[in-house]
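Intended use. Records like the one below are meant for learning the mapping from a protein sequence to its folded structure. Do not use them to infer anything beyond what is encoded.
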Amino acid sequence: MARKAKKTDEINESFEEKHLKIVAKLQELRSKEVPCDSHDKKQFSIKMRGRVEGLDEAIREVSVMKL
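Structure written out for the chain above:
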């Protein structure tokens, strides 16, 4: 039984590490600035807002998966 608990702890630890890496990567993407060549700044702003909201949602989903 102790062996099974040890294996479960290893899996949980591995999952925790992966979770932290995913969240860190998503937050890095969220904070990254993208150069804007577009003359249509409003369109660009809407795209960026959608991108940030999408990344926020992904961060939330990954955090919920952890629970």
